[in-house]
Each structure stands twice: as C-alpha cells, then as structure tokens.
Amino acid sequence: MKRKNELGKIKILTKGILEWTFTLLASFIIAIVIKNNVFAMPEIKESSMENTFFEGEKVVLNRLSYAFKEPKRGDVIILNKSEGKKGVLNGISVEIKEMYKLLNGEISRNHLLKRIVGVPGDLIDIKDGYVYLNGEIIKEFYIKGETSPRDMKFPITVPDNKVFVLGDNREVSLDSRELGFIDYNQIEGKVVFRIWPINKIGTVYENKGVN
User: Fold this and answer.
1) DSSP assignment string, 16-40
2) Residue 204's pLDDT band (boundaries 50, 70, 90)?
3) How many CA atoms lie within 13 A of 197 on its CB side?
4) pLDDT tens figures, 80-96
5) Predicted structure pTM score
6) Which residue, 99, 169, 192, 211, has fewest beta-carbon neighbours within 10 Å?
7) Judging by DSSP bridges, how do beta strands 156-157 and 123-127 pair with one another?
C-alpha cells in the first residue's frame, strides 16, 4: 500500500512537471510567433533615409500593417530586395535566416528602408530635381539632396500590386530608380514608431504626396 501511494505521488508529480513544461513551451512558441508575425524592432544600418532616419536608430516594424489594407503613399517600409515571393514553400531556409536577422535587430543587405511615393495607378515623373505625382510636384521638405531619374525612364505609371519607393537621401539611395517597382510580396512591414534615440521617440511622419 505504501509503495502504491509513493508511485501515485510520483505519477502526479511527473504529470505536473510535464504540464508545466508543456505550458512553458507553448507560451514560448506563442511569443515567438507573435514577435515574428506582428512586430520587429530593427536597428537602422544605412544612410539612405537621412535626414529622417540615421544609422544606429531603432524603429518598430508592424508586420501586419498590410494584412487587411494596401500600402499608402508616405508609408515608410522595410522591403526585401529579393523578388522571390514569401511563403512556406518559397525558399524557406533563406526566408528564415532573413527574418531572424530582421527580428534580432539587423537590417541585412537584402532589407531596405524606404518611403512609398507611388501606389498602383499613380503617374510618376522625375525632372529638374523634383518628383511629380500625377502631374503635380510633391512637396518633400524632408529629403536630402536632389532627385535624379537614374536608370528608370519617366514618366511611368505604377502597375497593380506594386509600389514606387524612394529613399529620403536621394543622392545615395538605392531604390525604385534602380530596382524597379516593388511588389507587395516584397514588403516586410510598415515602420510605425521610432524607439531610439530617446530624444527622437515618436511616431513616423508620413507624407501622402501632393500637398
């Protein structure tokens, strides 16, 4: 009888440990899933968005911003230069590595921080150092340097499911002028908040286009 009682206590203890372990593991997995699919806090590693963002600053990226709505003009986004589509079966090992870098504070060479200037149907033109949206100059007080057309021929219309992006630091930025239009599938999320440095904490300014 005493042995049965001891075995019963051991079973109860083992069950409790297993339940506790399962709960802890499940909580950890849920936390990782939420982090991977909702928010990331990367550190800026490039100068192409000066004077809006500088190297060393940290931002909050909302990965669900475009789950139920389309990208808008003025949104600051992080995009993946790779044209490969996202998804479990599309280069999963590469995607996991890139996501790991992004979520752990790195913007890799494939990840670029840019501003959406044109959305589907917009007519974009660049001439005389200015950007024209649907025939009107965009008032861009935040940019650094003049805007040149580079490799892309203008005027040009943004096709469906794509956006036209530029960096605020126009003379050094690698953007749609070389990369072409950015597919929705390449957008990792919208930058919604700056969390570092302390004196610049706040929401991200959005310029919608023609003012």
Assistant:
1) HHHHHHHHHHHHHHHHHHHHHHTEE
2) confident
3) 6
4) 887 644 443 344 444 45
5) 0.71
6) 211
7) antiparallel
The DSSP symbol for 45 reads -
Pull the structure tokens for residue 140: 């861009």
Is it true that domain 40-203 has CATH number 2.10.109.10?
Answer: yes
Q: Read off the tokens for 84.
A: 């490969």
Contacts with 122 (C-beta within 8 Å, 6 or more apart), sequence order: 73, 133, 134, 157, 158, 164
3-class DSSP assignment, residue 174: coil
The helix (H) or strand (E) run that includes residue 91 is: none
Q: Count of CB atoms within 10 A of residue 70's CB?
A: 11
DSSP 155: S
Identify the residue with better confidence: 128 or 85: 128
118/173 Cα distance (integer angstroms)? 16
CA atoms within 13 A on the CB side of 159: 6
**Token digits of residue 152:** 């892309």
- Strand partners for 196: 58
Task: Tell me which residue has tokens 């806090």.
Answer: 41
Between CA 121 and CA 131 the distance in angstroms is 16
Evaluate whether 144 touches 166 at the Cβ level (below 8 Å).
no
Cα–Cα distance for residue pair 149/131, rounded to 1 Å:
9
Residue 152 Rama label (left phi>0; alpha psi -120 to 50; beta)? beta
Provide the residue ranges of all domains of the chain, joining segments of one domain with +. 1-37, 40-203
